[in-house]
Amino acid sequence: MFQRGPARLFKRMSKRTSRIPEGSNTTSQPSHQRESQQQPILEAQHQVETHPTWLPKLPPSQPLPEEETEDYDDALKGAMRELRNDFTSGARQLAESALDRLAYVTDIAACMATSWGEFWALMVYAAKQFSRARPSMSAAITACLLRALERIARTWNEEHAKGIQSTVELARIAGGVFNAIVRERKELSGQLGTTFTSWLKRYYNEVLQHPLRFDQVGRAELPQTPVRILTLSNSSTIRAAILHAISSLPSVAIHLTVLESRPRCEGADMAAQIYASAHHKHRLSINIIPDCAVGTASRDIDFVLLGADCISSTGDVSNKIGSLAATLCAKSYNKNVAVVALSDVEKIAAPGQDSKHIERHPPSELTSAWAPATRNQLEGKAHVDVFGEWFEWVPANLIDVYITEKGILNKEDVDELAKEIAELDKYIFQQKKD
Questions:
Q1: Band of residue 356 on the pLDDT scale cut at 50, 70, 90
Q2: pLDDT by residue (tens digit) across 143-170?
Q3: 8 A C-beta contact, residue 167 and residue 113
Q4: pLDDT number for residue 275
Q5: Which of the four CATH numbers 3.30.930.10, 1.20.120.420, 3.30.460.10, 1.10.287.180 does domain 2-187+422-429 have?
Q6: How many CB atoms are closer than 10 A to CB 10?
Q7: Are 339 and 394 in contact (CB under 8 A)?
Q8: Which residues lie in Basic residues bias regions (predicted)?
Q9: CA 420 to CA 426: how far, in whole Å?
């Protein structure tokens, strides 16, 4: 889990900017151990390291077992199938699903492993497979699982120093780590919501100067001048942030324009969920529009709020199709409009792993809304293509601010985080220690 992982980036960031909250956790290194006649499978770190000092010592590399693996293989295939076919969850939710499935597979692996190294190999292999299940959302899945494995290895080192060696005990320790991470992830939405609310309060008080009243852009007559936000798709991160802002800023009204986000119209789903959960509906106005009306709708907004399925090491943001059009239209009407990327830090991909993968969906996703005669004329015909891409990239030069649970980041911060996850990937997934 990143919160318990390396703190070196945030130490560097706090020296050059006050935008990042202080108090990020640091991780102490395992104490030195005296050598024994029997070489331990897990060792504490020595003074001379062949890997970055913030990483824990890993079990020795061992091949996967070749016999009696049916239960493990079946569980792995079933989990992969579920992850690949989940087109409802966003990147954060999918990462949590992958973590839950890794915990399940870990229990099975514990029953078949004959050594610590073999147990570790089974866990790492499953995590690698899960990270590849949905390439368009692999950044969040990969970071979540890598940091879980890093934390498990660190805890194993600490417990091994106390004499714990059995596979049963290792499985218990791993299960405890998984449960702790799940609990901590539930707090992350609150942390991100707090960061977003602080930014919004400052933006509202210091930047916004439009004279429109709420009744001019919304539906109800209110004394507040609203913040006019354009967003799209169904992001759990955005939902939580908007609800947090409404409840925390009693002097602020929000006018939310939401693209319906075809073909599955998850933007409308998000609007419904926000409206149902808001406790201060008198300060919330929602306008749901078809995607094709983004040009008209973006004329009178203050900022574009984007979720992220992936953020490249250079700061490009991958999000639901329509994000680029919303950004360009808003910027063309008003160069002062802010484009905000709201994201967990785990969605930042390592350099070279943000391969701009194009996820394509079947034509039926779009054609199901057509008249039967139209479908019959066009579906499956030669030289007739139906657009099936769900995600697109918004270039970094169009993004004004990255808001995360760790604070407000700039592009240099994004690059540093990308390099850290690259080190972790190289060390755990690729087993390269030099």
A1: low
A2: 999 999 999 999 988 877 777 667 888 8
A3: yes
A4: 97
A5: 1.20.120.420
A6: 23
A7: yes
A8: 9-18
A9: 10
